[in-house]
Amino acid sequence: MSMVKRLPTEVAERIAAGEVVDRPCSIVKELVENSLDAGATFIEVELEEGGRQLIRVTDNGTGMSGEDAQLCVERHATSKLREWEDLDNLYSFGFRGEALPSIAAVSRFELLTTARGEAAGTRVCLEGPVEKKVEAAAGPPGTRVDVRDLFWNTPARRKFLKSATSEAVKVTDLVTKFAILNPKIGFRLTVNGKEKVFISEHSTLAQRLADHWKLKEEDLILVQEVVGEIEVEGVVAKPVHHRRNRTAQLIAVNGRIITSQSLSQAFVEGFDPLVPRGRHPFCFVNLKLDPAAVDVNIHPTKAEVRFADSRAPFRAIYRSIRNSLEAQKVETLKEDQWGSTLEGTTPEPAAPASSFAIPPVLVEGKDYKDQPRPAPSAAAPFSPPPISKPPSRPPVDRVMELYRPPEPPTETKEEDPQGELLDTAPQRPPQIAYLTRLYSAYLVARVDDQLWVIDQHAAHERISYERLHRFQITGPDSQGLVVPLPLSLNSSEEQYLEEHQERFQELGFEFSHDSEGFHLSAVPPGLPGAKVEAFFSELLSEMASQEPTENQTPVAQYREKLRAMMACKSSIRARERINPEEAEQLIKDLIEAERSPYCPHGRPTRIRLDERTLERLFHR
User: How far, in Å, CA of 421 to CA of 365, rounded?
Assistant: First the structure.
């Protein structure tokens, strides 16, 4: 007997569906792209139970005839291309003819469509890939697709879905991105009957991005450039706005949302050195180029593309961002621009400030220095806010006074079982000689017979983290705010907070909620008051973008994140001035730290050079 058998149609269709449909978000993506291809000017998405119970997408596009409606749910049936060569001139989102049959294979599917100018429409119903029912039906011009009981016939896949709110948050983020990419089209999203997103077709791109990023429109910079054969259109935020992750970035090619680590790096380099290292700017770009120069047929979900010239898109994004920032006179200066990089040396004449000079000291999102910035040109579209000299910062030991550990025990002597006195005095402390500060960020000191080079920010971050760890933000203990702080949240953030409010409460945050949204009424003890909103915004972004690991409970993992963020925000910055006494105290505290070699984010705090290391470096 032959061992090779042809799979039943039902089994083959379900397997093929797994390449395109893995969660409600992927279904919404395919259906919205079909609506965009149909020329819709308003698209409505409805969810019930995060998409498990119902996903409905309704548009006012061209609709379909009865014949097309029956054919569109069959695999490899498409109106987008006829020949292989058509891929070189393809501007539509869909073209494989796989989305609708894949969705229908794992759900109870219904399509209702009416072509413009037709009196009656067509309804097509399927349960699984083989049972089809077609009938005439009344409906407005356009198309409505209902996807019910997702994965009802593939329970193994259904159990891998996230919670209803997590799935709804993903869909909310996706719908918002579609709205940004299509500023002339209106969108509405309702979740369990409640409207979560409404974007009028009359709202501008700047309004949509400002609402999504929760920034002011005047903080946005238009990016519009032609680099080679690529036209770059987009918007970026001023460099004072940045995040630890890439959740505020969106990349598209010919209007198609894609993911690309290399192109995300172009954002970082385009803003360098205006944005601190390890942070990511707010960016949206849409690359417009000849379809023949990009292959969108390399991934089942079309989320990844391949370019004929792999370096051209990176170069286009980088150059367009740099030019836009230069045109807007976005400047920054190094802290020691007017002097030497080493303390205690004679200052040299300063070179003229460049639009992309070495970054300044950053304190709470502002740049400070000893001399005022020259006034910007009157022709500049906007002028940066006036720079004032920062208030004097308390010494390192006073900055961390709240988390100062108990003093070490004094020298004592006690008897052993034989009656002899034991010397329990602590070991001799290391001999520390602070030497200088290098490049405004690194402390150089001699510790016993070793030479240490210390990253002052990473070292202070490690010290603060360990003291916060001993302080232990635990349980519901919190510090009430005199005036509740209104939170500026976008739709997906608000949904996440509604679902996981108890996790934040266990961290020490407390909320009130009214018709205007969430208000922060209490925070964990020790959280710097001036940075409460920034702390919470970044923590919420981190929690919403990452799933908890298996080796820690969500609360324990997020508590670690909160401690690391508090330590980072409360630490001295890389180029912040400190005096020799503060530097020496910082070195002593680092030596006492339990895990001194690395900061909470894994960066080294110091490099040690001993005699053997130097001999090896000099090949002795």
Answer: 57
